[in-house]
Specification:
Distance between the termini: 62 Å
Largest sheet: 8 strands, mixed
Helix content: 10-25%
Number of helices: 2
Number of domains: 1
Oligomer: single chain
Number of strands: 11
Order of helices and strands: HEEEEHEEEEEEE
Radius of gyration: 18 Å
Amino acid sequence: MFKPKPLLTIVAFIIAIPFGVAHAGAGSLGPNPTVAGGTYTSPGGMSAALVVRKIQGKTAVCGVWAKSKSQSVMTRGAEKKILRSGAVVLNGKTLLRNLSFLREVAPATSYANMEGHCRLTNQVWKQGNDKGTVQIVLPRQIVYRDLGDEMSGGIIIRFRPTGPSAHPDDPKPWD
């Protein structure tokens, strides 16, 4: 019978619950979620929408994300990297880092009342948190780099935080 070593168990626990947060199920984003996102220096973009709410006496973040249906093949999968580098700021203080837990949904003109995945933080819920200023930080970054050879000059594609940018009516670059 296999018995895990205590150190192995501790390491697994630390990896499973990064930065003191835990999965907290799912919840509605309500009528007015905070929305952010950005575009690439090639076709396409992404959007993220979330709310803060009280779950088990703690502050939780519930949200979704969407990607453009029309985008460069070189940016496919970049959204997870962008979400991992993201953060939620509540009333000027970082509440949560790493937004990779958000639920993927189809691009929409509004993310109101969608069902999102929730993550519980260590912060005790304070009266008025739901009316506080919530910001989604998705930093500018390089998502694709191919330096090529001396003749081609290479390709670099960046993500730019320009606001919600995944919409169901995204134009196709080849239209």
